[in-house]
Amino acid sequence: xxxxxxxxxxxxxxxxxxxxxxxxxxxxxxxxxxxxxxxxxxxxxxxxxxxxxxxxxxxxxxxxxxxxxxxxxxxxxxxxxxxxxxxxxxxxxxxxxxxxxxxxxxxxxxxxxxxxxxxxxxxxxxxxxxxxxxxxxxxxxxxxxxxxxxxxxxxxxxxxxxxxxxxxxxxxxxxxxxxxxxxxxxxxxxxxxxxxxxxxxxxxxxxxxxxxxxxxx
Length: 217
Prior knowledge:
The chain has 217 residues and is mainly beta. It has one helix at residues 96-108, and strands at residues 2-8, 12-24, 30-41, 47-56, 59-69, 76-81, 85-88, 113-118, 128-134, 138-139, 158-167, 178-185, 190-196, 201-204.
């Protein structure tokens, strides 16, 4: 998994993420999936553009793209691919960059729970009610973070253990669709990632961290 977050409070924020997974069955046959996500979010959090591409090996098998404007009422996500699709969203929906910003602010304020409806653009038929449980703050030991390059800058940074659960709005069972846990730093970086999809659990370790050059406005 590679993630890049760039932008400023004038031009908005661009989030790019790529997740490549290789699964080998008992006969030794490998299956590679490659999911690439790119989104742009205005600084005030109202406008959101997104594109998700899924590859099987080198072949593009699915694309989702579209936009949403929170200043409009009723609020819908409009999809340009596949075309002629819309998804009704609640007026208090937030998008990925604002979610991370609000989560850090909640942790810094000493809150233990932060919940919000979130739309990330990865699905054409759903958004999620997201509940985040925030643990007690601590300073991570250096062995917990990347030990090469600029990852060392996290050595003395405040951080919190966080568990984020994604629920469908109309779920009656009370169980999340999936859960993500990680250590969240006060600059928005995360490490010790665990993706829990129920049948499959993926553990991630932060191995490299590069700070982009700031472009103030």
